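DATA SHEET
Item: assembly model
Revision: 1
Owner: S.N.
Input lines:
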Amino acid sequence: MDALLLRVAAERDRSAFAALFTHFAPRVKAYLIRLGASSGVAEELAQEALLSVWRKAHLFDPAKASAATWLFTIARNLRIDAIRREKRPELDPEDFMPEPGADADAGLMLAENEGRLRLALRELPVDQIQVVELSFFADKPHSQIAEELGTVKSRLRLAMGRLKRAMGGDA
Amino acid sequence: MIAHHPDDALLMAYASGMADEATGLILATHLHFCSECRIKSAQLETIGGSLLEDLPPQPLAAGALQATLAKLDQVKPYERPRPPRSRDGTPGVLRAYLGSDLRDVRWRKMGPRLAYAPLFRRGGMAVRLLRGVPGAESGPHTHQGLEYTLVLQGGYTDVTGSYAPGDLQVMEAGEHHNPVADPGEDCINLAVTTGRLTFDSLIQKIAAPLFGF
């Protein structure tokens, strides 16, 4: 999928785009339905998300994230914009404070670790995968989730511990 | 070095897109200062990518691909907005909400040592800047809801520790503290609150609603 996305960016390759569409549009639609969108709205926004892929392909950096993660951020932001009618405050990728002693290469580790992360996610105990999914698929403001946390918070901590070990870093 | 970070649940709320805009703003501003949380946040996004990849696909209507292909020539490549750079180090993400640099903010006085500037309210969350001269106290108070405080300049100290630029303090409902601005530069914080603050002193009890606290 990463290679297809790079071909769209470099050559405006329509057949590569069609392959990305076939793979991701039904997943983006499923994501939006999971978060409570009607089938019609999810269908429309899934097409819009893929149109954004065409428009933004030159920003995709395979060293930083996989195609699936990049698609996720597009679908996430589109949902906030179109369904919640809010903005997602985003860090400007070219404007942040460099921190002395920070590991500049740490970001480069991400893409190669994604496969391991995916395996670790699939191997999480059921109660832990539930809280991770709740965090991504339950449409509640954070304050509301925070009120309900309790055991959720400790489960999330356990899940994060396992995932971090899988990604090979303590960060 | 940043000493006080958001916990995994908060960072996950931001990465997953579940955080409301006010919480998102204070977290994004923390990321401006904190490389550790920038990396964590990117890692959390990869969880989103994995979950998306593993979702059972929902087929689109027949003709959806053709309809989208037909639009490709009508849309322009996306260009990332290039806002003017801050002249005083104001984080870009915050600058977009201020409409100016921190040094150009118009402050409203709350007594001789404290000032504030409201940014926005949404969904029960109030976002504001707070400013105190060295030694200024907010006055002892208890939170009825959550409070997130991020230091932008200077610093402050309370019973839980000292906070410097980039540090994020989370106060849960019912917690009580009395932050005091550290010596040096004026302390400027970004604060997000749900619910009102209850001040111990009578004067502040009367004044707080006037200032929207």
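QC remark: Chain A has two domains: 2-82, 112-166.
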